[in-house]
């Protein structure tokens, strides 16, 4: 009887140990899954941040290019305006000279 009882107790003990091991394994698996999920989330966040930074940089570049083009355009406009003004002055001066010559010839 004593051996039977021992065997039964030993079996119960083994069963308990087995259950405990299974529980521990399950807990470990859950922890690993949670860690993996957290890592994935972190990676996604990092990717999103990188994308946002790239977009901001691109927008900044576009803005800078646009400003440079506007400055160039304004410079060209000013240059053309000055050129036109000089030409007008030259023409006016030439016209005055020609008018004087005509007036002298008439006299």
Automatic annotation (TrEMBL):
Residues 13-61 have a biased composition (Acidic residues). Residues 75-107 have a biased composition (Basic residues). Residues 1-12, 62-74 have a biased composition (Basic and acidic residues). Residues 1-107 are annotated as: Disordered. It comes from the Eukaryota. This is Uncharacterized protein. It comes from Trichuris suis. The lineage of its organism: Eukaryota, Metazoa, Ecdysozoa, Nematoda, Enoplea.
């Amino acid at each position: 009887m004593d051996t039977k009882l021992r065997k039964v107790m030993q079996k119960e003990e083994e069963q308990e140990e087995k259950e405990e091991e299974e529980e521990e394994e399950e807990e470990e698996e859950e922890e690993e899954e949670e860690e993996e999920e957290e890592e994935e989330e972190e990676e996604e966040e990092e990717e999103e941040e990188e994308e946002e930074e790239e977009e901001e940089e691109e927008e900044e570049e576009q803005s800078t290019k646009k400003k440079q083009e506007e400055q160039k355009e304004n410079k060209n406009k000013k240059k053309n305006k000055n050129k036109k003004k000089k030409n007008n002055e030259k023409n006016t001066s030439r016209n005055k000279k020609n008018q004087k010559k005509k007036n002298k010839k008439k006299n």
